Amino acid sequence: MKVTCLTFNPFQENTYLLHDDTKECVVVDPGCYEPHEQKQLQNYIEKEGLKVVKLLNTHCHVDHVLGNKFVADTYKVGLEIHKEDEQTLRSVSVYAPTYGFHKYDAAEPAAYLKEEETVRFGNTELKILFTPGHAPGHVVFYNEQEKVCIGGDVLFQGSIGRTDLPGGDFDTLIQSIKTKLFTLPDEVTVYPGHGPETTIGYEKKYNPFLR
Asked: Which residues of the chain have pLDDT under 50?
């Protein structure tokens, strides 16, 4: 599985394209809002000859969902989120204009992700782990074979997700990290929703929030 990161919008959000030798592709957390950002995503997909087969959200804060409708409409795929984050998604239309996103157009969820279920595309499998705390319905996607975790806004290099937004809870987030992420092998690479990738082992050793 190849992981491609494209960084979009004023929040510098990491959008991930996951694809393998079959050319099937999954888009995770499309943050592309401006036309040139949408074009950048489209150009990469075209250049690599990819076929988008799934649209997934780790969670539904504004910076992670701005491109949902574009991807859903362009590639004819249904949005998949965790049921517990549906209210988070629906609230974006209310507050998006206050952040300057006056053209935000919402995509409706087409299916719901459940913990311990598997997302399959091409020759690749992603295990769904339920990791609330930053958002009530936050999930991460773990590829055991490649030792890769698409982590959203749970764990960052030297930091953790903020918990002061509606539905956030610090103790719940710490519990999610310790019971869901820190039980993964140390060599697992975590690709977060913002900033550079890190590893489970590094964060166990150096993350000041988790010592």
From this structure: none
Pick from 180, 111, 143, 186: which is nearest to 20 by CA?
A: 143
d(CA 180, CA 153): 14
3-class DSSP assignment, residue 200: helix
3-state secondary structure of 178: helix
Model confidence over 127-185: pLDDT tens digits? Answer: 999 999 999 999 999 999 999 999 999 999 999 999 999 999 999 999 999 999 999 99
Among the residues of 58-191, which ranges form H helices?
62-65, 68-75, 86-95, 170-176
CA angle 205, 210, 211 (to 5 degrees): 60
Residue with tokens 């919402």: 106
pTM: 0.98
DSSP 137: T
HSE-CB of 3 using CA atoms within 13 angstroms: 21
Which structural domains are found in the chain, ordered by start?
2-206 (3.60.15.10)
Look up residue 27 and give its two tokens. 């888009």
